[in-house]
Amino acid sequence: MSGDDPARRAEPEDDEPGEGAVEPAGVGRLLAFSDGVFSIAFTILVLDIAVPNDLSPAGLEVALAGQVPQILSALLSFAVIGRFWVSHHDMLRQVRGADSGLLVVNTALLAAIALIPFTTSLLAEYGDLVEPTVYYAGMVSITAGLQLVMLWWITRRGLLQPGTPRSMIEEAAGGLGGSVVAFVVSIPVAFASTTAAQLCWLLAFVPVAPLVRRLHS
C-alpha cells in the first residue's frame, strides 16, 4: 500500500501551471508572437496616411488638410493599441507558464487587435456616420473584454508567479473595465451624436490605478 498523501498527489507540480500546460519558456514565445502582431497593427495604422507627389505649395496644404481625419484616427488607435500592448506585456510578465486555454484566449485577443486598423480606416473616412463609430467602439470593447477574460483565466488557473501583488491585478482589471465601459456607453450615444460618442472614448484614458490604490489604502 502506497504511503503517498492523496492531498499531496492532487497538488500540481511547480512546473505544471495547470491542465494542458506548456513549459515556462513557452511564455517567451507567446510574448514574441504577440509583440509581432501588435507591431504589424501599429504599422498598418499609418498606411492610409499619404499625399500625392509633385504638389504645389497650395496643393500640399489642401492634401495635408485632407489627411487630418486619417492622422487623428491613427493617433487614437496608436493610443488604444499601445495601451492594450502595455497591459498585455505587464500581464504576461507575471505568468509562470501557459496552458492551452491561455493560448486560445490570447489568439482571440490578437485577432481583435488585428481588426482595429480596419475599423480605424472606416472611422477616418466616415467618422461622421453612426455605423463606423459603432463598429470602432464595438471592436475596442471586444478587445478590452478579451483582455479581461485573459486576466481572469490567468488568475483562475493559477498561472501567476508566486508573490504577484493582488493590487497589480486589480489595477489592470480596473483599467480594462474602464475601457469597456467608455466604449460600450458610446455605442448608444452615437445614434444621437457621433461627436459626443467619440468624446466618450477619452474616458478610457482616465487613470484608474490611483483610485484603486486609494480604495485599498
In a nutshell, what does this entry contain?
With 217 residues, the chain is mostly helical.
- Helical content band: over 70%
**Separation of termini?**
53 Å
Tally of contiguous helical segments:
9
Taking pLDDT < 50 over at least 5 consecutive residues as the criterion, the unreliable ranges are: 4-18
The largest sheet is: none
Average of pLDDT = 86
Tell me the radius of gyration: 21 Å
Task: Give the SSE string.
Answer: HHHHHHHHH
The domain count comes to 1
Structural class call reads mainly alpha
Q: In percent terms, what proportion of residues is strand? A: under 5%
Overall description:
The protein has nine helices and no strands. With 217 residues, the protein is mainly alpha-helical. About 7% of the residues have low confidence. The chain is globular and about 60 Å long. The longest helix has 27 residues. Helices cover 71% and strands 0% of the residues.
